[in-house]
Amino acid sequence: MNEEERAKKILHILKENFTLPEWISSARAKEPFQTLIRTVLSQATNDRNRDEAFKNLSRRYSITPKDLAEADVKKIEEVIRVGGLFRNKSRAIREVSLAVLERFNGSLDFIYSQPLSEARGKLMSLPGVGPKTADVVLLFSAGKSVVPVDTHVNRVSKRLGFASPKADYEEIRQRLESLYSPKDYLAVHLLLIALGRSDCRARAPLHDSCPIKTLCPTAQLEAHQPSSDRQSRGGHS
Questions:
Q1: How many separate domains does the chain show?
Q2: What is the C-alpha separation between 41 and 49, in angstroms, rounded?
Q3: Among candidates 226, 133, 153, 233, which has minimal Cα distance to 193?
Q4: CA dihedral 47, 51, 53, 59 (to 10 degrees)
Q5: What are all long-range contacts of 196-204, with beta carbons under 8 Å and residues at least 24 apart?
Q6: What distance in Å separates the CA atoms of residue 143 and residue 121, rounded to the nearest whole number?
Q7: Is the pTM of this model over 0.85?
Q8: Which of 220, 215, 234 is nearest to 14 (CA)?
Q9: Residue 25 lies in a domain
Q10: Counting runs of H as helices and runs of E as strands, what totals does the chain give?
Q11: Across residues 126-131, what is the average pLDDT?
């Protein structure tokens, strides 16, 4: 089977084994500024803590550039503490809110009408917004044809042989986008994350329970190594 066929089969199996989260269809997930803030809160924490931090922030403030730009950083810290790195995140939230207010008149709605590359460039001009954050906003809020690459997508893509071990963000993104249809980009992003959390872990990946182990070159390679070698290696990061 060629790479496109293998990629398609992997996606089919992942859809059968994992459920896509319900929150992606909510209005809260689609509004671009709120998606941006959720993404800031998601850094170095799990979904539960991110959602709790977002809920706490929503109770104290309207999630708008104006309200958050005017908010006291210390008060933001208090309500998002559960999400971890609350000092850094509170500053990032206020800085990006100010920038959206000043540069884009308080609205990110340009992502709906502008070409992908132009909208992406504008988002990445905001303080603290890198390619992953920009791509998350573009995909989740505007349905743009892009696959965000977080740490799980990076790791899983390399283990699956979709990208070389030294591939950077753009190489991985472009490779995934070439293997899959745009209609599947959201599912590809979320399902590779789900696999990375459940079986394809950074350390000691669970090859035996992985639903796509027969399609994974890393799993096949390590299955033929002595157990002592597998334990010492612990998988790729």
A1: 2
A2: 9
A3: 153
A4: 180
A5: 196/151, 196/152, 196/153, 196/155, 196/156, 197/152, 198/18, 200/152, 200/155, 200/156, 200/159, 201/235, 202/151, 202/155, 202/235, 202/236, 202/237, 203/234, 203/235, 203/237, 204/231, 204/234, 204/235
A6: 16
A7: yes
A8: 215
A9: no
A10: 15, 0
A11: 97
DSSP at 180 = S
Same domain, 96 and 189: no
Q: Which residue has the higher pLDDT, 223 or 83?
A: 83
CA atoms of 23 and 26, how far apart (whole Å): 5
Host domain of residue 50: 31-142
Confidence at 234, pLDDT banded by 50, 70, 90: very low
**Per-residue DSSP letter, 224:** T
**CATH number of the structural domain spanning residue 165:** 1.10.1670.10
CA 188 to chain centre: 11
- SS3 state of residue 73: helix
Are both 62 and 92 inside the same structural domain? yes
